[in-house]
Amino acid sequence: MSIRLTVEGLAANYGARRVFSGVSLEVGAGETLVVSGHNGSGKSTFLRLLAGLQRPAAGQIAYRTAGADWAPAEAGHLIGWVAPDLTLYRDLTARENLRFFAAVRRIRLDDAAIDALLERVGLGGRGDDRLSAYSSGMAQRLRYAYALLHRPPVLLLDEPTVTLDERGAAVVDAVIAEQRRHGLVVIATNDPRELRYGDLVLNLGA
Question: What pTM, to 2 d.p., does this model score?
Answer without folding.
Answer: 0.95
